[in-house]
């Protein structure tokens, strides 16, 4: 029951970069805030896919590694001590008689809140694992689904299976430090920036396309070789490896949130210019949001988050100021 648990002013679903900054801004507006995240750590797609990549399109920050940006966002969010809950996927939404919203996680836990900000990207992220009977035996050893720590590949013979932008980026990043990098892709065309694909093709990266990964062979502890097969001729090649990186895409899904009665388009939640959804008291920010001229960048979410918070504040208190004061004027933030 709601009266037995704390009721928050705002519950942010998603602890990605936008959820973290939104939590900070909730603090500026003196809103009691909780962030619920499905993954065991914050950072969303940044932590999952490009922690070591340098992000260069956030105003005032000429370049920052993804992981460092998340560290700084965590520090900023902590200014006002929001509560964080990890390892919970929010699935259920119910409005109680007194207007309080009850959110339920897949694990069965409940959260009570007056408003919700959906900063859930396009949903929970799960990598598409290698479809091979031995894959689980080697996962986390020398079969990986991301190239999180580049230094671990120093001097190694690396095979990357996949042709998306992350696969191309990893090939380029690993090429200077690995003993060899081979990328195999079932189509001739690669995803990602043209300049990145050109750079990869002009480097020492060995490009096998159109090839697919047919077999992995190992000693039970590590994979020792893989078999690649030409998708048209059937020609096979056995390649000895130290590391295998699989980049076969990921599944991203709003899941049961789609059943809440929200207006959606292309897997995102429709927002008006106040970041309101069609459900009263439910707002949206970041990759989750859909509206005309939506900027699908972290910087876009850093505006939408505060707008959603201001809308939540107005929903809770129609007499409140429409916007926060400047952070430079905030009593907790002013350096004496
Ligand atoms: C390879 C790659 C490179 C990129 N490079 C750049 C770049 O250089 N610059 C840039 O600005 N942008 C870049 N982006 C885009 C950027 O990552 C996104 O715009 C940004 O991550 C959006 O942040 P978000 O917090 O809205 O969503 P996300 O990062 O997707 O985070 C959403 C979080 O919500 C959680 N979640 C979802 N559903 C639930 C639920 N039901 N319950 C609990 N938790 C839930 C997820 O687990 C996730 O952690 C890149 C993206 C990729 C894939």
Automatic annotation (TrEMBL):
It comes from the Bacteria. SUPFAM superfamilies: FAD/NAD(P)-binding domain (SSF51905). It holds the Pfam family Pyr_redox_2. Keywords: FAD, Flavoprotein, NADP, Oxidoreductase. Residues 8-297 form the FAD/NAD(P)-binding domain. InterPro entries: FAD/NAD-bd_sf, FAD/NAD-binding_dom, Fd--NADP_Rdtase_type_2, Ferredoxin-NADP_redctase_2. Binds 1 FAD per subunit. Gene3D superfamilies: FAD/NAD(P)-binding domain. Its cofactor is FAD. Homodimer. Belongs to the ferredoxin--NADP reductase type 2 family. This is Ferredoxin--NADP reductase. It comes from Bacillus nakamurai.
């Amino acid at each position: 029951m709601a009266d037995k648990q704390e009721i928050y002013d705002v519950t942010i679903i998603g602890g990605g970069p936008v959820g973290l900054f939104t939590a900070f801004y909730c603090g500026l507006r003196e809103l009691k805030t909780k962030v619920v995240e499905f993954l065991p750590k914050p950072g969303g797609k940044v932590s999952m896919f490009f922690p070591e990549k340098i992000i260069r399109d956030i105003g005032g920050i000429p370049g920052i590694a993804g992981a460092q940006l998340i560290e700084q966002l965590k520090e900023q969010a902590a200014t006002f001590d929001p509560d964080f809950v990890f390892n919970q996927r929010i699935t259920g939404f119910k409005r109680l008689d007194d207007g309080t919203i009850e959110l339920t996680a897949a694990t069965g836990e409940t959260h009570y809140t007056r408003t919700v900000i959906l900063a859930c990207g396009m949903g929970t992220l799960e990598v598409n694992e290698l479809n091979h009977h031995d894959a689980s035996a080697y996962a986390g050893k020398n079969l990986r689904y991301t190239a999180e720590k580049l230094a671990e590949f120093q001097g190694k013979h690396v095979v990357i299976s996949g042709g998306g932008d992350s696969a191309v980026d990893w090939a380029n990043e690993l090429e200077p430090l690995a003993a060899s990098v081979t990328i195999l892709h079932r189509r001739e065309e690669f995803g990602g920036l043209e300049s990145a694909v050109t750079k990869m093709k002009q480097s020492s990266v060995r490009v096998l396309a159109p090839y697919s990964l047919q077999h992995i062979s190992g000693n039970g502890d590590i994979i020792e070789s893989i078999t690649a097969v030409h998708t048209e001729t059937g020609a096979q090649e056995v390649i000895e490896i130290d590391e295998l990186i699989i980049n076969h895409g990921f599944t991203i899904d709003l899941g049961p949130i789609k059943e809440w009665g929200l207006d959606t388009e292309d897997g995102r939640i429709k927002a008006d210019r106040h970041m309101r959804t069609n459900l009263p008291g439910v707002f949206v920010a970041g990759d989750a949001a859909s509206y005309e001229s939506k900027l699908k960048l972290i910087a876009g979410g850093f505006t939408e988050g505060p707008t959603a918070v201001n809308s939540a504040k107005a929903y809770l208190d129609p007499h409140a100021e429409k916007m926060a004061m400047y952070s430079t004027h905030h009593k907790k933030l002013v350096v004496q």
